[in-house]
Amino acid sequence: MQLTSFTDYGLRALIYLATLPEGELTSISKVTEVYGVSRNHMVKIINKLGQLGYVDTVRGKNGGIRLGMPANRIILGDVVRATEPLQIVNCSEDFCHITPACQLKGILASARSAFLAELDKHTLLSLIDNNPPLLVLLDRPVTE
After folding, report:
1. 37 in a labelled binding site
2. Which processes are annotated in GO (biological process)?
3. pLDDT digit string (tens) for the chain, length 144 residues
């Protein structure tokens, strides 16, 4: 299963925000610079993550973005469910005439469930905790 770029960069943005000291603000421009993604695309992603409560957006001259909740409360499976269209194939009878007898849709549904179940085992914190190489790649201070 391949995630859309929206979900992919949404997760990456959350990873970056999780590396900031608690409460510290950064800019969308900084996140786009780190990942080399279009600012317009990242604005849409941050807007959605803000609506979902994962990102806190602060307006004004001294504004910016930061995590909207602690990283240990952000479950990866929840983020993917909220940002990813999870229909793997179109099994409507109007689209596929074998749908009434097809066993593939059940197998794919099980695979999707297993994929999400694995993501549910991990939080945003688990991606950054004790991961100095990640901090180096994100140009964040490494704490011993």
Report:
1. no
2. negative regulation of DNA-templated transcription
3. 789 999 999 999 999 999 999 889 999 999 999 999 999 999 999 999 999 999 999 998 889 999 999 999 999 999 999 999 887 777 777 778 888 888 888 898 899 999 999 999 999 999 999 898 998 999 888 876
Q: How many CB atoms lie within 10 A of CB 31?
A: 22
- Which residues is 58 bridged to in the sheet? 64
Residue ranges of the domains in the chain?
Answer: 5-85+123-137
Fold of 5-85+123-137: Arc Repressor Mutant, subunit A (1.10.10)
- Residue 123 annotated as binding? no
- In angstroms, the Cα distances linking 69 to 52, 72, 88, 91, 94 are 11, 8, 30, 37, 43
Residue 19 labeled ligand binder: no
CA–CA distance, 67 with 7 (Å, rounded to integer): 16
pTM comes to 0.89
